[in-house]
Every structure is written in structure tokens, then in C-alpha cells.
Amino acid sequence: MRIASWNVNSMKARLEHVLAFLGTDKCDVLLAQELKLTDENFPTDSFTKNGWHVETHGQKTYNGVAIISRYPISDVTRGLPLLVEQDAEDDHARYIEARIDTPDLGMIRVGCIYLPNGNPCPGPKFEYKLRWFNRLHAHAASLLESEEKIALCGDYNVMPQAVDCYDSEGWTGDALWHEDSRAAFFSLCNLGYTDAIRAMHPTGEQYSYWDYQKGAWQRNNGIRIDHMLLSPEAASCLVNAGIDKEPRGWERPSDHTPVWCELR
Are 157 and 118 in contact (CB under 8 A)? Predict the structure, then answer.
């Protein structure tokens, strides 16, 4: 099976792009971020009429995540568990998790992530980003206890290494390149999760985002902030992974493009 993750930057604006991508048979499960729609306004019928199963965790104007699957979806969780009382104030729709039952691989648990950007840094938004990372870390650790196949995928808003940016020095002071953001990302890997893209492509650029400004796409001034982290049980099934640049070149595209991994 193939899992794809894509920050669509508005499902309303990018619906035809998403449907076209799904129509190419490039994935069996799509994890979508930044829907910018409530659950009630999500175009569920556009997917279900073509046989896709859909679960959403939406929000008006901002955020929003969804799981779109060929296979049945069950055991759905919306939002991360709370760690401290301050987390109870967090009403952002940034995480959805579910069980997917597949005919070949059996059950796999997927988590769709839209991690906070964190800018300006330092400041309250960066502090929120790190708290959210802490909640994700605690939950990711608890998931490993199940010894299930797990894929935690999405827009992490972190460039882990210098190779993941066209000019890392130019991003000094930005929350996406801050040492605390990178440390938080690698703390997830150190739990036992595998970065699927780097497992298949250990060197070289693998960009997933190009800003709309300053000709970033045309000049290939990209960064890698969309990641797929696999539990040991899922990583043992990993046969391929990559980034599909084609949708970034479509008319009125998202500034992100799909990342994917194939499990067998």
C-alpha cells in the first residue's frame, strides 16, 4: 500500500487537484493538512462517490486535517491527549488518527499532523509549538507500546538538517530551523521512528515546499518540512518513499507537494 501526505493549503481551493491526484492511483491513503474548512463544509461527497472513506477534523479558516482512504477507517481520534492544564485551551484542529484495515498489510494506524509553525520566534507561538511537540512525543511513545504498524505523517514545520533547505543560514532565527524544533523532531526519531524519506534517500535534496514568493519554485529554493515517521513494525515493510513534485507545478497549486511511502 502507498500512503501519501499533502498540505493542500485549502481543500476548497485545491479540491480538483486532490481528486486528480487520487485518480492517478498514486496512493491508497491520503493524509491531508490545512483544510481550512469545518467538518460540515468538507466536500465529503466528492470522495465517497468514488469509493473513498473520509474522516475529518476541521476548523473554520485555519488548520484542519483529514484521512482519505480506499479502505475502511475506524477507531478515530481527534486531537492529541493533554499533558498540562494549559493544553486544554488548545482548540486547533491539527491532529487526527485512525486505524486502517488493508487486505495485504493488515491493520496500520495513521496519524495526520499539522504541527504549528511557531513564528515569530521567540515568542508565544514558538512556545506553543514546543508544547505541541511535547504532546506529540508523549503520544508517539505511547503508540509504540502497541507494537502496531504506525505512520505519523504530515506537515511538521521543521527542517531537520541543512540538506533539507536550499539555504539554511538564511533561515537563522526562524522557528522551522530553530535548534529546539530540530531537537524535538529528532527526539521522535530517537523513540524508534524512521524518517521514511531519508531511509530511502539518505543524501541530497528532497524538498516538499516552495514559497509562492520570489520565484522559489522556478529557482528550486525549496525546503523539506513534510515528513513520514514510521514505527519499527511499519518501517520493516518500507520498500520505497519519495516526493511527488508534479502537483506543485499545476495551475494555482498548494505551496506544498505530496510526500509518499510504500509499504509491502
Answer: yes
Type of residue at 254: S
Q: Give me the DSSP letters along the chain.
A: -EEEEEE-S-HHHHHHHHHHHHHTT--SEEEEE---S-TTTS-HHHHHTTT-EEEEE--SSS--EEEEESS-EEEEEESPPPSSGGGGG-----EEEEEEEETTTEEEEEEEEE-----SSSSHHHHHHHHHHHHHHHHHHHHHTTT-EEEEEEE-----SGGGBTTGGGGTT-TTT-HHHHHHHHHHHHHT-EEHHHHH--SS----EE-SSTTHHHHT-EE--EEEEE-HHHHTTEEEEEE--GGGGSSS--SB--EEEEE-
Tens of pLDDT, residues 130-144: 999 999 999 999 999
Q: Exposed, middle or buried by CB within 10 Å (0-12, 13-18, 19+), for 175? A: buried
Q: Are strands 222-223 and 209-210 parallel, antiparallel or unpaired?
A: antiparallel
Per-residue CA distances from 159 to 101, 143, 209, 230 (Å): 32, 24, 11, 18
Give the pLDDT of residue 150: 98
Cβ–Cβ under 8 Å, residues 154 and 7: yes
The amino acid present at 18, given as its one-letter code, is V
Q: Which CATH number fits domain 2-263: 3.30.390.10, 3.60.10.10, 3.40.50.1970, 3.90.180.10?
A: 3.60.10.10
Q: Give the pLDDT confidence of 220-247 residue by residue, as tens digits.
A: 999 999 999 999 999 999 999 999 999 9
Distance CA 156, CA 164 (A): 13
pTM of the model: 0.97
